[in-house]
Amino acid sequence: MEGVKDVGKGKLPYSAKELLKRGPQLTYRGRNLDHIAFPLGGIGTGTISLGGWGQLRDWEIMNRPAKGFCPPDCFFTLRAVEEGSEALVRVVQGPPGGDYIGDGHSMPRSAGQGLPHFSQVSFKGEYPFAIVQLRDPQMPVRVTIEAFNPFIPLNDRDSGIPVAILIYHVRNTSRRDVAVTLFGNLTNITGYPDTEGHVNEARSDAGLTALYLTTAKHPPSSPRFGSMALVTTWEDAAVWPRQKGGIAKFWEAVTGPPESFPPDGDPACPTGTVAARATIKPAAEVAIPFFIIWHFPTVEHWQKRKAEDGSEAAATWRNYYATLWSNAWDVAEHVVSNYDRLYEETRRFHDTLFSSSLPTHVLDAISSQLSILRSTTCLRLEDGTFYGFEGCNTSSGCCEGSCTHVWNYAQALAYLFPNLQRSMLEAHLTWSMSDDGYIQFRMPLPLGTRANAGFLPAADGQMGLVMQAYREWLISGDEAWLRRLWPLVKRALEFAWKHWDADRDGVMEGVQHNTYDMEWWGANTMTGSLYLGALRAAEEMARIVGDTDAADAYAKLAKKGAAWSDRHLFNGEYYEQRVNPKADEGLPEPYRSICTRGKDDKFPDWPRWQFGKGCLADQLIGEWYAGMLGLGHLYERGNVRKALQAIFHHNWRPALHDHVATLRIYAVNDEAGLLIATWPRGGRPGYAFWFADEVWCGIEYQVASHLIAEGFLEQGLAIVKGLRDRHRGDRRNPWDEFECGHHYARSLASYALLGALSGFRYNAATQTIGFAPRVFENDFRTFFSVGSAWGLYAQRVRDGERDLTIRVDYGSLPLRRLITPLAARKVTNIAVNAAGHTRAATIERAPDGHTIVLDRPIVIQRSEILKITIT
User: Does the pTM exceed 0.85?
Assistant: First the structure.
């Protein structure tokens, strides 16, 4: 395990044992439950969150973020009658915590906080599953809530269902039979904030018992129109469409004699109940499923636009899920009829991912942030196009437009749902790019709206799109797709020659707008490395499509630019910025006016918001990207490794007691974090770029995975551990890493940790897959996902024998080559077995190991295994 001895501002605060700890995920208890909100729902559908003590919170299902919104009286209650004893009733939650003050008149009470609860609770989340354990010494049963939503990589349709699934496992802990009734409440919020026109009805058909809710006041085309359903497949179930007299009468009904339920309803009450009954033998258990389903088909744009007649209106469009299902009942029938498969495939993904032999906190980071994909950060437009905000405000999306320079960091979507990643890329290239190659980094809506030049083009985001095109090609191997997009990709790349690299020397010296919401003036390796990476990626794509002249030009330019940067920007320790106060000369309007920022008071010739001699955390983001795509090093490897060591040494803090943060605060006091910029050699500008002193999770993941990929394992793991230790429920929600808003997209960079620790690489066109684990090499397992399949790779080394296996758990994997560093210098035997059949293979030396080449391509089907034994 390679590392540096002198790190951070002292020694690592974690032992190697802590950093490499494997085992189950953390179980949350006590005050660590306060901020837990585990998102449930489908990609692009909105969400309902499961809280730390089992409550439902943050109902964000009406095409808008809605942090803190909880419809009244939506909770589950359990009545238990042990044979020969009186009934005991509890809200199926642990003791309520978190906010004890509320609005100053009462602690929050929408989720039944004022009623008797189970006395003991614990929460465990392994996305996409959450488990809540409930105990109470007075109750003759214990309850386990198993919550999930279908999440099946490569299957975006079933991963985009507007449903939250709750399975209540009720176990009899007494010595006598126990009769139980589980009551689920759902309040009609269709038409919200209107309180009129609610339609509540009981439905029963084909094994479904449901409370179905909609509105008669709003037409189906209205953004306020929608339908909801609370559904169970339990045989002995009944529906009370409308409660009576509020929560007091509800409690009176469920605690009274059985014949008191259900009482007469109130026609004006928006809340209804579904009750499921069972008798449980001693030591036996029942599992009662409930499905909360919603369907709000019309999205309304968050901004009104002026029409030609001067009137203002907001554009509307349909949710993608509304093109698949006509209402909540239609969704319910799909979920129930496919439930066994949906559960099995989601469970299979979970089990495969968590079979990976990675440190616990790394699996926590990777899995928890996948929930971003189905938070209100993400939408799916009517034609299925994936669209994302940067994050979410409390009641609105934050920073619209699938922002190129933020989503540039995200890696999970491309591998788990590659067709969705391609749809976002294609939308940018189609609707956000002008004829000259300028890409508006915020794609406007509704889809089909042409972007205008109202912003500076983002150098990092635009070059990142070029690299993404190559990534999507590697994952899919779809040459027809690449040929169709190549003219657009080429135009996007060569725009750099008009705006950032006018002299075509491979170095961006111009004014470069970037993810820090300002502009770098002059050469630097943050945007510059993405430019070099884009040139290298474009070179590869150009050769594939036969554009050899362009490929040769890009290769020459990338080599020239890298050499200049190594010579002029590397200070012997890390890469600096060479500030160019005249970078705006020749910049056309309106760009020149937009980038005018005033002068720095310490460096009067400089514009404000530069970093100069500073050590920038993501100074090597393009190098990180290039490594993941197998493009090799852009700069001299020795310089890259020194720069990564310097970033960790200067920017990572094991505690932040003495840190000055004058803007936003994401890490504080005893918490660890990676600062975006430091000035170890002095020269901090008087107006340094405004986010320099902050700690951003997405950049921490980017740097951590890059450190690991370059062999600095302990340092990379330390960054991840410090980050996740900040999100432990007592201070922040483990399933909500925020930056400019909740569920911030940049944290999807955590998926890069999987590739860094497994040494994963893939090329669909050449049918090549490779692994080079950086931890637990002698007994290693990892989840993998590519365009056509996902599954588990495993390797085991013992007594001179090396066993390599690939198991496909979903889809099918065409394969001809497997790259591994494990082969010995002299191989006496290689045995290949594919799905029970012996195959011939040869072994060849490769720059980073050996390539096992099968005599002819094979296709590993679902549930099949390829096993290779090297002696």
Answer: yes
